[in-house]
Specification:
Shape of chain A: elongated
Largest sheet of chain B: 7 strands, mixed
Helix content of chain A: 25-40%
Strand order of the largest sheet of chain A: 3-4-5
Largest interface: A-B, 67 and 93 residues
Order of helices and strands of chain A: HEEHEEEHEHHH
Bound molecules: iron/sulfur cluster
Radius of gyration of chain A: 34 Å
Shape of chain B: globular
Radius of gyration of chain B: 28 Å
Oligomer: heterodimer
Distance between the termini of chain A: 103 Å
Number of helices of chain B: 33
Structural class of chain B: alpha/beta
Helix content of chain B: 25-40%
Number of strands of chain B: 33
Number of strands of chain A: 6
Strand content of chain A: 5-15%
Chain lengths: ~160, ~1050
């Protein structure tokens, strides 16, 4: 007597029964074998991720850090904000019988765009407060000429010492 | 206010008290050029960086006559034997490391030399763990094996043909008999010495001589520097031997009679650096009444490779422990087994012979940045030259330290130096500038002669290093700024008046007479006098005080006049003679420190004014490197946010404001500019034989451009600086732009630029083409360079063809119509065009390897002989004992500076070598404060040490420790790793004060950066000038800011830290 073929996996009457019970409590469109269900809606949360990785334009730039890499990077911009960077891959080929230059990069460079809006970013000009105070006062005293004002500050040893 | 400070300084003290520092133009050429252009237009001083960073391998100018020229990483693939020597490729050349790994899959053997189990060592087939700083001993032993097996036991034709044509090995060196009867190698024999018709030819003192093997007679072959500049020899500056077969050894000459002579040679085999003398025989012959031998014969003598019939002490075999430079001798010093050395040297040479020169050595900062790094490099380059590897694809040296290669060099140099408006510019050697102006010379207790050869003749006797700087300045060897103890504007006007009164033939001579009469002094001779202080300093694209400032604490004390951790005293014993000593050292020389950056750094924290700069994603600019052959663009992804500005805009605005203020205070002035005798100009023929007696204190006249700097009067219209900044000036067409003595006529390019950008219609720049935005300046840089403009490449080669008489222009003719525009570089990286600005050829799509044009087209190297040099004969080099490749141990900091001896113990402390290699999670100081890198790395300051040293001072991983010596103190957490060898700590380069740096227990002040524990150590031989390849050019030659010989005490500190 021929034995019936053994079904692959864990399928069997027990799992069929469990699936049936499951569908009794949650009714959705389903595939005939009940292994897949079809739903619509409920994806609002994805927008966040999609936006994070969408962009309006891509711009070529690199890093000027004396690293010797001089790698070309794609910089992604969304709504006027730099979002992330990725390695360029369009270096002209060096020939058929050898490896290529693309892609180039390093983990440090891949982290660069963080600086744009980071707490360490220098956003405005800074001047040493004591110096600026003395300079402004001197400028008033000499009648507005910046050179004479500077001269007044630095030729006074005490003032010079005060801001150094 | 910044503009006002500049106007005031120029008016009161002189333009050369205004200084700027911004390194590495290749990493953003326009941003660099913009600031440099402002500084140069006002007559200010730009400091060099490549030598200051000790990225410059001084051996390169010494041996090749070239700043640095190396293969792109794609050429590693062509190597069939690849050594990595002191270069940690995966960490410091991350995007290129794959080539090294891939070459292995192709069958290339990869060997690593590093003191620690470095990241690159993991990829190597074999590891030679040489003790830090002893690499030259290893290289000398390999050279010993190569010479013995390929030049004596067997003579390999491939090697011999190469060295007689492309190196100085066959050239004749005179032997000098000293009064005590001893004999030492002296100088190259020149045509002048021959006393015949040759001696009467132009520049005969710069034409070196060899012996015709067959005829046995002296021959003056083409190609030495004596053929480079004069009219008569046009067409003869080439390496064509015209059928002459040079005698490599004197014994090869048909006329050799069997005469020998025993010469004395210096050796520095003792760990204290103390020199000794070895006696070795060389074959000699007589030419024009002088005893001569060849450089090759001296090389065998130096390396201790004996030949039958020669007197002297020679190595008895590779296992001879006592005789330098055998494999067994080096084992005692480096710890590398002698057999491994012999085997690797043999493999290296055999591979080169079979592959025709495709053995390559990648070298890096780990061996370059030592005091004697030049000597180490020369020993390694010797291996490559002996094996015919230089100028080959897949062969030769591959030195990677710093992004020095500005491929479009001519255009960048013109924009940065503003030579389109005024020349010459004021360029300074950074190391000497900081050494003198931060008063590090005051605590420098050793005189130059403490490192000299036992055979020295006293050229450096009793000279303090500050005296070396002073002498180098007054002899025209190296530049120094400020120039004089008076305002150079006043000097210029006085000189003009003096000439009008008939006091001298010209202004330069008038100044020379004042200097000779000591009516006027070089500023360096009284560098601490207030009128000689630098007054303004602008930093941009630079974090000087968080990164490169060797002896950082001295910067803080003397230049800035702020809080510091200097613990040593001024040196009472050894004081300079030619530099005035002030009892009270000045503190706070600078009036104003300005920096421009996009992030807060150790430098911005210390600045008086900080300008917000655009990031690399917010400006137009250009980038190139020696690692790959492309130029490509920076493009703004967004416009600079907040009040940030591009470097270009910042300096344009500063130039305009400066001019507004200057029109009332300065107007049009004359300025007198002093420049050193410059490499690749006839100035390098000023001092024949490398023997230059001093005019100071003797009756030798001081002659500008001979034994004194060149002195030139220029006009500066200070009210027009703003307008000149944004336009290309008329000297472009009038004088052309010059790179390496090839002058490019850019008349056509100026027309093109005018059509493209338009011209100004009024003012000082009326009719001149605009470069009034960063993108336009980028365009100009590309337009004026041969590598990016085929028309100029062809033109340059045609000029060079006339001088050399060999065919060259075909290398670029296929690209004559090609012009790489800025838009091209924005579209994709663009491979550059073969150009005489560099020494290699990319023609036909081959990978870039340096010197292929020299080797294949017989174009000379820019050296004395026109060949690559093993032998150097300048008086100072001889006195330092470095005429030939040699081993010199790291400096003995105990003997020279009174630091503790290595291994010396205190309570929970030990004295160790203090090394500052590059870091995996940052590049210089950049990125370490980046949130992502902080998360990936340990974060904050660290000190890597071995488990052995950690156990001795009871330190566990992550404990706080302090590294200190007389220079300052550094505080960090210990990383205890088996990767580290005992006796060495690694404090990674440029860890800044801004992240997690607590107060030190030792001084109570905040701990410093890695360079707070280092100091500037100027090597006198780097200050030589005025003599062929040993002549100054900006970033080409100058003293290095080396920092690896430093010894520091590492001690466990209280684990309670305060910030
Ligand atoms: S990715 Fe890394 S190596 Fe490449 S340019 Fe940027 S920082 Fe340099």
């Amino acid at each position: 007597m021929a034995t019936p073929p053994i079904a692959p996996g864990t399928d069997g009457p027990a799992s069929d029964a469990l699936l049936k019970i499951g569908q009794f409590f949650t009714r959705w469109d389903q595939s005939p074998d009940r292994r897949a269900v079809f739903r619509s809606g409920g994806r609002a949360g994805d927008a966040f991720y999609r936006n994070r990785w969408s962009h309006d334009k891509v711009v070529r730039s690199t890093h000027g850090v004396n690293c010797t890499g001089s790698c070309s990077w794609k910089v992604y911009v969304k709504d006027g904000i730099i979002t992330w960077e990725a390695q360029e891959t369009d270096y002209p080929s060096v020939g058929p019988d050898r490896p290529e230059y693309e892609p180039r990069g390093c983990p440090r460079g891949a982290a660069f765009s963080w600086y744009t809006y980071s707490p360490t970013r220098v956003r405005y000009p800074y001047v040493r407060g004591v110096l600026l105070g003395m300079y402004r006062q001197a400028k008033e005293e000499v009648g507005g000429d910046p050179v004479l004002a500077w001269q007044a500050v630095v030729s006074d040893p005490e003032k010079r010492r005060a801001f150094q | 206010m910044t503009a006002a400070a500049h106007v005031h300084t120029i008016k009161t003290y002189g333009p050369d008290r205004c200084t700027g520092f911004s390194p590495i133009p290749a990493m953003s050429m326009v941003s660099h050029a913009a600031g440099a252009r402002f500084i140069n237009l006002i007559g200010g001083v730009m400091n060099s960086f490549y030598d200051w960073y000790a990225d410059l391998p001084v051996a390169s100018p010494q041996v090749f006559g070239d700043q640095t020229d190396v293969p792109e990483s794609g050429d590693w693939w062509d190597a069939t034997y690849l050594m990595m020597w002191g270069s940690n490729i995966p960490v410091t050349r991350t995007p290129d490391a794959h080539w090294m790994v891939e070459a292995r899959y192709r069958g290339t053997k990869v060997v690593s030399v590093s003191p620690d189990y470095a990241d690159n060592t993991k990829f190597a087939d074999e590891w030679l763990p040489a003790q830090a700083g002893t690499d030259a001993a290893l290289a000398m032993a390999m050279g010993h094996v190569i010479l013995k097996e390929n030049f004596v036991d067997r003579r390999v034709p491939f090697f011999e043909d190469y060295v007689v044509q492309y190196t100085d090995l066959p050239f004749l060196v005179t032997l000098e008999q000293r009064p005590d009867g001893t004999v030492v190698p002296d100088k190259f024999l020149t045509a002048t010495d021959l006393g015949n018709a040759e001696a009467e030819t132009s520049d005969a003192a710069f034409k070196t001589v060899l012996i015709d093997r067959d005829a046995g007679t002296p021959v003056v072959p083409n190609g030495s520097v004596g053929f480079r500049y004069n009219e008569v020899d046009e067409g003869k500056w080439n390496l064509d031997l015209q059928g002459v077969r040079p005698a490599l050894s004197i014994t090869d000459a048909a006329s050799y009679s069997g005469t020998t002579s025993t010469v004395e040679l210096p050796a520095f085999t003792d760990a204290t650096g103390e020199g000794s003398v070895v006696h070795r025989g060389v074959p000699v012959t007589e030419v024009a009444g002088r005893q001569v031998t060849t450089v090759f014969d001296l090389m065998l003598a130096q390396y201790g490779v004996g030949r039958a019939g020669l007197p002297g002490q020679w190595a008895s075999g590779y296992d001879d422990v006592d005789t330098p430079y055998t494999p067994a001798w080096q084992e005692e010093i480096t710890s590398v087994p002698a057999q491994a050395v012999a085997r690797i040297a043999r493999e290296f040479a055999t591979n080169a012979e079979k592959s025709r020169g495709r053995s390559m050595i990648i070298l890096g900062a780990g061996i370059c940045q030592w005091y004697h790094g030049d000597v180490t490099y020369r020993a390694i380059l010797a291996m490559l030259m002996l094996c015919g590897c230089q100028g080959r694809n897949g062969g030769g040296w591959a030195h990677y330290v710093g992004q020095e290669k500005v491929r479009p060099i001519t255009g960048w140099a013109a924009m940065a130096a503003a030579t389109d408006w005024t020349r010459p510019p004021r360029f300074m050697i950074g190391t000497a500038f900081w050494y003198m102006h931060t008063d590090q010379f005051r605590s420098d207790g050793y005189s130059s002669d403490s490192l000299q050869s036992p055979l020295a003749q006293g050229h450096l006797e009793g000279m303090h290093t500050a005296d070396v700087v002073a002498k180098s300045t007054r002899m025209g060897w190296m530049p120094f700024f400020p120039q004089f103890d008076q305002n150079s504007l006043d000097v210029a006007e006085a000189a003009i008046a003096g000439v009008a009164r008939g006091e001298a033939a010209d202004e330069a001579q008038w100044v020379a007479d004042r200097l000779k009469a000591e009516d006027m002094r070089f500023a360096v001779e009284d560098v601490d006098a207030p009128q000689n202080w630098p007054r303004t300093l602008i930093l941009w694209r630079s974090n000087l005080l968080g990164s490169s400032a060797k002896g950082e604490e001295y910067f803080l004390k003397h230049l800035l006049g702020t809080h510091h951790n200097v613990m040593g005293e001024d040196h009472a014993g050894s004081r300079p003679k030619d530099v005035t000593w002030h009892e009270e050292a000045p503190e706070g020389k600078l009036d104003l420190l300005v920096s421009a950056d996009f992030r807060m750094t150790s430098s911005t924290l210390l600045s008086d004014v900080v300008f917000p700069a655009a990031t690399w994603y917010e400006k137009h600019d250009l980038s190139s490197t020696d690692m790959h052959p492309y130029v490509h663009a920076f493009t703004p992804a967004i416009s600079p946010p907040w009040e940030a500005k591009t470097d270009y805009d910042l300096f344009r605005l500063l130039a305009e404001e400066f001019s507004r203020q200057a029109s009332a205070h300065l107007g049009v002035r004359k300025d007198l500019v002093a420049t050193a005798l410059t490499h690749d100009t006839p100035g390098e023929l000023a001092q024949p034989g490398g023997h230059a007696p001093d005019w100071k204190g003797t009756d030798i006249p001081a002659v500008p451009g001979r034994n004194l700097p060149e002195l030139k009067i220029v006009e500066r219209d200070y009210a027009a600086v703003g307008q000149k900044f944004s336009a290309v000036g008329p000297l472009a067409e009038k004088l052309g732009f010059t790179t390496k003595h090839i002058t490019y006529d850019v008349t056509h390019q100026i027309r093109q630029l005018a059509q493209k950008h338009g011209v100004f219609d009024s003012g000082a720049a009326a009719g001149r083409p605009a470069v009034d935005t960063d993108a336009r300046m980028a365009e100009a840089i590309l337009l004026f360079s041969g590598t990016t403009n085929g028309e100029l490449a062809v033109q340059g080669f045609e000029t060079l063809e006339q001088r050399t008489g060999v065919q060259l222009a075909d290398l670029a003719r296929g690209s004559q119509e090609k012009r790489i525009t800025f838009a091209d570089t924005q579209a994709a990286p663009v491979p550059v065009i073969t150009s005489p600005e560099w020494s290699g050829s990319e023609t036909g799509g081959r990978r870039y390897a340096p010197f292929t044009i020299n080797i294949e087209r017989l174009k000379p190297f820019h050296t004395l002989t026109g060949r690559m040099h093993f032998f150097l004969d300048h008086d100072w080099i001889k006195d330092m004992g470095e005429s030939l490749p040699i081993y010199r141990p790291p400096l003995d900091m105990h003997r020279l500076f009174g630091e503790p001896q290595l291994g010396q113990r205190g309570e929970l402390s030990i004295a160790v070598r203090y090394l500052t290699p590059h870091n995996k999670w940052s590049i210089h100081s950049e990125y370490q404060d980046n949130l992502f890198m902080l998360s990936l790395s340990r974060g904050g300051t660290t000190v890597w040490m071995s488990p052995q040293d950690a156990a001795l001072i009871e330190v566990s991983d992550n404990d706080w420790v302090e590294c200190l010596n007389t220079n300052g103190v550094y505080v960090g957490r210990a990383i205890v790793s088996h990767r580290m060898p005992a006796g060495v700590v690694y404090v990674h380069h440029a860890q800044e004060r801004t992240i997690d740096v607590p107060k030190s227990e030792t001084t109570g002040r905040r701990g410093g950066i890695h360079n707070s524990v280092t100091r500037i150590l100027v090597k006198p031989t780097h200050m030589i000038g005025g003599y062929a390849q040993l002549s100054w050019a900006f970033n080409y030659l100058g003293p290095t800011g080396n920092q690896r010989d430093i010894v520091s005490v590492v001690r466990k500190r209280s684990q309670e830290v305060r910030y």
